[in-house]
């Protein structure tokens, strides 16, 4: 064949392809517009070419079904099956056509044949599975996968595929069996955790998960995977008491020398569950008195106890003195070095904020700075503490200078942002609202969420309550009282807050005044008055931002101080119902269930 003929053939083929492409595009346009009769006419012509038939297969089939032209659809599919014998999905389309046209028995026979045939080859399993998903026949997909599993003689084959199918069928017990089995065999913690986090939500599902994990742990006591998942699950619920039980069992069984418990204790401490972090650090000290974690557990145990004392009202000064003695004894035993300067810092803060011995606190902090070696970050943290102490001493200019030094020294670090936030609060305390807000607005973009949130809240408080002359005066009075509270002058603060509320009962600050007063009253053990203020927030400011804070605090007081179990449960239930997006939701659910007595260790 000479080049001229070849060129002519090439041109002719190109023209044919171009025409076919234009016709296909026109048919697709008709299809999308719902003009199925026009689309069918062009599709029928294109279907005479095997390659083009594959391209138009789905749209042409839908078109004929829309037109109720079942005979033409069946003829088209049989031709497709003949021309593409390696594609099971075309046979599946025919089975579905039988079903659509009322020939259910014939359709089921064909589905059975397809499942039987596909189950012998993995590639066919995946092809037919995809068809069943598109056809919303998930139960058929399960049959296919189970049949293929049986034929393979591998009892775990297609586990993740089955998990997905069971999820679609809302058979979450079976889904979990497959997911946990796969996770255990592959040690794929992240897959199991992500699946649980995304799909196990309701109390009923959570109970099912826990029972399943407990059963697996009992059945396979030497397998650690399910214990690890159960510990993780409890931490996700902030249920550190039950997480500790499992971590302790794992520690003893696997001879982990306390490392797993120590890790969990840190999580508990960061979650402000100091009661359980104390228990964990105590366990490590008792079980491993000669272990490498002992000195760290000792320090963190004292710190956990400190946080418990500081968050249990009224604060007991004798307990504060006991904590200082424990820190002092630890320093006597170990000496002042870079590992113990944190204890010195804690001692200083206890002296300053709770015993009001400011000069002693400054002296201890200077010792901590001297013992910190080259740890500039720690030294700057102590400078921030010194700044706070000078606020307690009513020497704000000294505080500002210290905060600015740290801000400059740690400008690339989160500590620099903390220094900036402290400076913004100092300007707020002293009535420099515009300057404070300028700093806070920069900090809204802070690298840590906690600093960003604090800046946002204080900025909004200033913004919402300044601008008008009367608002400026109210805000100035409020910030001065806030400073008194920072200085631990609680009795004086309560008197002034009462006066402020009487004066500004209808002001936008009213709920903030009540909230600040309630928390201050708790610190001096005036429980009944605090409860009255919290109830006032709920009755009169139910839709304001502090309502869920007030309700959770009221529930905790009712549980822990008033000891009214039923009433506390009622408050926790109310919070879950009225404020479903509250940050207190997880804790409220745990506390409710504990009070109800349905938590099994």
Automatic annotation (TrEMBL):
Signal peptide: 1-20
Protein source organism: Lacihabitans soyangensis
Name listed for the protein in its UniProt record: Tetratricopeptide repeat protein
One Pfam family cited in the UniProt record for this chain: TPR_6
The organism's place on the tree of life at top rank: Bacteria
Keywords: Signal
């Amino acid at each position: 064949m000479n080049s001229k003929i070849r060129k002519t053939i090439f041109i002719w083929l190109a023209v044919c392809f171009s025409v076919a492409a234009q016709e296909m595009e026109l048919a697709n346009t008709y299809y999308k517009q719902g003009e199925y009769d026009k689309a069918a006419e062009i599709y029928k012509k294109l279907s005479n070419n095997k390659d083009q038939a594959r391209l138009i297969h789905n749209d042409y089939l839908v078109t004929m079904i829309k037109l109720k032209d079942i005979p033409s659809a069946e003829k088209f599919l049989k031709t497709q099956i003949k021309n593409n014998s390696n594609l099971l999905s075309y046979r599946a389309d025919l089975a579905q056509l039988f079903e659509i046209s009322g020939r259910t028995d014939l359709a089921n026979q064909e589905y059975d044949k397809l499942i039987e045939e596909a189950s012998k080859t993995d590639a066919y399993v995946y092809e037919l599975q995809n068809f069943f998903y598109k056809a919303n026949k998930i139960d058929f997909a399960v049959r296919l996968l189970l049949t293929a599993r049986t034929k393979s003689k591998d009892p775990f084959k297609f586990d993740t595929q089955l998990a997905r199918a069971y999820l679609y069928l809302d058979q979450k017990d079976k889904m979990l069996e497959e997911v946990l089995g796969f996770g255990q065999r592959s040690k794929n913690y992240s897959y199991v955790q992500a699946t649980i986090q995304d799909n196990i939500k309701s109390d009923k599902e959570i109970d099912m998960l826990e029972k399943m994990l407990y059963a697996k742990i009992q059945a396979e006591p030497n397998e650690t995977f399910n214990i690890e998942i159960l510990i993780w699950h409890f931490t996700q619920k902030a249920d550190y008491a039950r997480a500790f039980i499992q971590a302790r069992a794992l520690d003893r069984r696997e001879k982990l020398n306390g490392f797993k418990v120590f890790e969990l204790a840190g999580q508990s401490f960061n979650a402000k569950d100091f009661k359980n972090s104390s228990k964990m650090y105590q366990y490590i000290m008792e079980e491993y008195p000669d272990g490498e974690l002992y000195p760290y557990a000792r320090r963190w145990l004292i710190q956990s106890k400190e946080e418990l004392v500081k968050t249990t009202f009224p604060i007991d000064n004798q307990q504060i003195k006991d904590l200082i003695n424990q820190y002092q004894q630890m320093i006597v035993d170990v000496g002042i070095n870079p590992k113990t300067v944190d204890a010195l810092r804690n001692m200083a803060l206890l002296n300053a904020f709770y015993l009001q011995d400011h000069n002693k606190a400054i002296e201890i902090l200077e010792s901590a700075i001297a013992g910190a070696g080259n740890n500039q970050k720690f030294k700057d943290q102590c400078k921030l503490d010194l700044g706070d102490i000078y606020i307690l001493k009513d020497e704000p200019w000294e505080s500002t200078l210290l905060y600015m030094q740290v801000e400059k020294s740690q400008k690339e670090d989160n500590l620099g942002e903390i220094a900036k936030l402290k400076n913004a609060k100092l300007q707020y305390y002293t009535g420099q609202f515009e300057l404070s807000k300028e700093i806070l607005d920069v900090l809204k973009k802070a690298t840590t969420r906690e600093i960003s949130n604090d800046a946002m809240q204080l900025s909004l408080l200033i913004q919402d309550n300044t601008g008008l002359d009367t608002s400026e005066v109210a805000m100035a009075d409020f910030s001065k009282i806030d400073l008194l509270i920072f200085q631990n002058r609680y009795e004086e603060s309560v008197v002034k807050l009462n006066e402020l509320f009487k004066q500004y009962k209808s002001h936008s600050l009213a709920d903030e005044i009540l909230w600040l007063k309630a928390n201050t009253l708790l610190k001096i053990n005036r429980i009944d008055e605090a409860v009255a203020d919290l109830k006032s927030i709920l009755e009169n400011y139910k839709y304001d931002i502090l309502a869920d804070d007030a309700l959770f605090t009221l529930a905790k007081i009712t549980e822990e101080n008033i000891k009214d179990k039923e009433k506390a449960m009622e408050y926790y239930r109310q919070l879950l119902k009225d404020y479903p997006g509250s940050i207190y939701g997880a804790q409220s659910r745990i506390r409710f269930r504990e009070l109800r007595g349905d938590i099994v260790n």
